[in-house]
Every structure is written in C-alpha cells, then in structure tokens.
Amino acid sequence: MKKIPIWIMIWGLLMALLPLGFVAVAYFNPAFYGEEWASGDLSRLGGVYGNYVARNMASALIMFFALSQRSASMLIIAFLMRMFSDMFDVIHNAVAGVLDIAYIIDASILFAGCSIAIYFLWGIRKPAE
Q1: pTM recorded for the entire structure
Q2: Each residue of 55-65: pLDDT tens digit?
Q3: Which of 81, 42, 51 is nearest to 65 (CA)?
Q4: Which residues neighbour 103 within 8 Å (Cβ) at sequence distance 6 or greater?
Q5: Cβ atoms 79, 67 nearer than 8 A
Q6: In this predicted structure, what is the pLDDT of residue 65?
Q7: Which residues of the chain have pLDDT under 70?
Q8: Cα 45 to Cα 39: distance, rounded to the nearest angstrom
Q9: What span, in angstroms and rounded, lies between the C-alpha atoms of 25 and 89?
Q10: Where are the alpha helices (DSSP H) in the chain?
C-alpha cells in the first residue's frame, strides 16, 4: 500500500479544523449566523441551527479519526461526507433564498479540493482481496 501524500493529510486537517471553527463561532458568537440569542442560552440549538452545529462537529470528528487511521478508504469517505454536506448546504440555502456568492465560492473551493484529494486517494487504496 502506498503512503498517503502529506498534502492530502494537510487538506484533511483543514477539512477538520474549519468545521470546528464553525462550531466555536456558533456557540460563542451566534449573532454571526444571524441568530438572536445569548451564547449561554442553548435552547435554540434544537432546530435547524443546532443540526448545522451537530453536523459540523460530527464531520470534524470523522475527519480526525480518518486522519489518525491513515487509511485512504476512510479518508475518501470523510471527504465525500464533507462534499455532500456542503452540497446540501448550498441547495438548502438556494431553496431558502439566502444564498450569496461568497458561500458559493467557498463551497466550490472545498468541493474541488475534496474531489482532487479523492481522485489521488482512489489510486492508493488497498486493493480488494
């Protein structure tokens, strides 16, 4: 089995740290996301906003686990999860009518980066026995 390139590990680390940043901002500065509640009042975390926070936390933990295992197959799954969650965020925001160009650019860069990483990881997966 080939060794996973360092640039893929760095991209994976970035894909783990970004969602953790989103979670920290959501907990400590909810007004950044347009939420009108104090950071000590967690009652609003039960709705769609809370699902966004939970998904980002799960995404980060799964990516950290995949990175720690240094498994191409696990990293592919973690990158796919990140790609699909970003894609569904774009669709959700477009349907809601709150999609702005900055978010489209951000999601496009993340989607492209994960796609490139998956392309290279696909070639170094452990072959089926």
Answers
A1: 0.83
A2: 889 999 999 99
A3: 81
A4: 89, 90, 93
A5: no
A6: 96
A7: 1, 30, 32-48, 126-129
A8: 10
A9: 17
A10: 6-28, 48-69, 72-96, 101-124
